[in-house]
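Sample intake — Alcohol dehydrogenase 1
Collected from: Zingiber officinale
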Amino acid sequence: MGNPIQRRWFPVSGFPGLLHASALQKVGEGAVDPASGFIRQPLFWGRPTCSYIFSINTREHLRLHHLNLRRFREETAKNFQVFRNVEHGWSSHQMQRFVSHSSLLFCKHDDLYLIDEFLAFLLFLGYIAAVSWEAGKPLVIQEVEVAPPQAMEVRMKILFTSLCHTDVYFWEAKGQEPVFPRIFGHEAAGIVESVGEGVTDLAPGDHVLPVFTGECKECIHCLSAESNMCTLLRIDTDRGVMLADGQSRFSINGQPIYHFLGTSTFSEYTVVHSGCVAKINPLAPLDKVCILSCGFCTGFGATVNVAKPPKGSTVAVFGLGAVGLSAAEGARYSGASRVIGVDINPNRFEEAKKFGVTEFVNPKDYDKPVQEVIAEITNGGVDRSIECTGNVNAMISAFECVHDGWGVAVLVGVPHKDAVFKTHPVNFLSERTLKGTFYGNFKPRTDLPGVVEKYLNKEIELEKFITHEVSFSDINKAFDYMLQGDSLRCIIRMDD
Ligand SMILES: NC(=O)c1ccc[n+]([C@@H]2O[C@H](COP(=O)([O-])OP(=O)(O)OC[C@H]3O[C@@H](n4cnc5c(N)ncnc54)[C@H](O)[C@@H]3O)[C@@H](O)[C@H]2O)c1
Ligand SMILES: [Zn+2]
Ligand SMILES: [Zn+2]
């Protein structure tokens, strides 16, 4: 599945300003391609925003290398003549596109070391994204244009992203409002490429995690110690556009492609509100901490921040996917003595042992409600339960299986849009508490850097959640793994 990646090439003659500017006479030794050691001769256009070098390997495919611009410049400055008059003949729009979307010219010739008779090409103007055109149909890997960030937005280069069940629900659109064409993805890590007006706490080069629910730091929720439901930037699953102007930043030949959760990380570049971006320690490995961007923090926080199991307590976790196992990790972290895993997929049980789950219950093995089974094995019910399935019956069971007098149940799964939670009010009267949470009640900008530090200090483990890895062009495989119940988290590498 997935189309092969194709890139468009434009001869310089299509860009009048460049022909003029290409009166460049001499290009000395090129930069060394760090991956292959192959010598290149990119014609370097000296704009401070140029931070990517696209080089062509005439024998193989096009590859993208991220180089340190300053180092590149220092190494090559004496040999490269900088284009100076490139603005000539360009509208500011073309200019903007060039500055923000490409960066470089380079020459292609039978003999790569000659420059006199070069044929220059301007590299593609778009970025590669996985576009979902229709509910339940494989994503299509294709070029999209990604507009520059507007006020209070950042554009970031995604390096790693992973698939969460929430992407799958909205892609299937069986129980959710369909919004297509759309770019899914909300669990990711990357690097800020550029920032829009008014963004002061993020700069190009920052290592960041985008988060589907934001933190403006000014609203009544952000000012409350108890809430992460920012009035401005709280999760909105139906909105496919940016807040600043109600427009999408993605397009293909002028057709808008909608955003998802304000993050749309299944794209080489994406535009996100700066309030939905957490700056993290640059030493953190992005291919691991990307799962903090949703799954891990959601489950871990649901336990640690919301359920708050006392030491020695018994915790039930419904749904043993990455979110549920993160909730189990939270139970272990809190010192729970029994963690009961509930899942209808028995293949999850073996794996869940690594996450401190001590007992397993498969509701399918019983002909009575699972809450009754749990009440029997726990002498009246669990102290805490965390629901991470999205199934409304599991939600009801998760509530009804907590002990009367003190039991607390926390709902995390995203339900079908028509789901109705039904229980007898006496279950509340007998002093059970029902709560729910997005993103484990973490305030993304304030709290996420600290969770990253916990990982770096080895207080929490992320590696065990990563069961699969695929290259971006194989992104549809990540959907298959999740649908078949095979994966916890499948990391999608963008640079391959
Ligand atoms: N509240 C939030 O902020 C938030 C954030 C991320 C994900 N989510 C939601 O959390 C849920 C879990 O996400 P995930 O990525 O771990 O998904 P996943 O598909 O990897 O795991 C879900 C697990 O639940 C099990 N399950 C399904 N129905 C069940 C039932 N009736 N009883 C017991 N087990 C059942 C499945 O077998 C599976 O193992 C999804 O609903 C997702 O949309 C919520
Ligand atoms: Zn998620
Ligand atoms: Zn706010």
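Post-analysis note: The longest strand covers residues 153-162.
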